[in-house]
Amino acid sequence: MTKTIRKPNIWISLLPVMPLHLLLFITFTFFISTAQTSIAAPANKLLIFWVTSNETNTATIDHTPWQSILDRYLINNHPSGINRFDYGAVSATDRKILQDYLTNMQQLDPRTYKRSEQKAYWINLYNALTVELILESYPVVSITKLGESFFSFGPWDDKIATIQAKTLSLNNIEHGILRPIFRDNRIHYAVNCASISCPNLAKKAYTSQNTDQLLEQGAKEYINHPRGVTFEKGTLKVSSIYHWYKVDFGNKDSNLINHLIKYANPELSQKLLQYKNDIEHDYDWALNKP
Hints:
9 helices, two-stranded antiparallel sheet, 4-stranded mixed sheet, 290 residues
């Protein structure tokens, strides 16, 4: 059984003696906090429009502009082992390069490309859109502070891209296209949510040639880092990604552990093999800045 880690609310015992305005404020804060800790991932909901592909098309999509942004602003040797993005250093010129790249990507019809080209296209688009969302509001402490609605927990449902006259959100791309079409749970190691607990934003733009290699690398890096998988006082604690998307990892703790073992280093693998108790999970939404 997977358990959510929750901190006890010390304010509850003080509620009867608090002024009404303070009580209302705390109630609202508790509501938002509860919504955040109990966040649930959207289910796969295939967007049929994007299923088509052309396996005879040998053309490739140019992701060089996105690679140039990664080369200049992604810090992939941070001592924490977590890739950071230097949002505050992005120049006006490079911001324009990113925006032009996003415009060009949205002018394409990905359905005319082969499947492997589509997979790289959607991953790069998702990650580039996420970086642009942060830059639009920077400085910001967390992506969860963004969103068009006052009650939004992040911008994932906002319509931020238009492709072939279809408006799309980040959730549409991840849960309507990437997850249901490609059925590859390693997708979770590729799409980046600009947060400390998220799998690393890859230093290489995805292409039809390197996608499988990058997905394997992303899985190994994440699972062998404490924010992905760790033991605390003998208890297994994993990233909340494995809770939100449990269905993608076999829908049972035993299947999840088998997945983790596949990529774990020998020491971690041995611990996982012997583990039979509850699994806890946690997530840090702080921005992945330097």
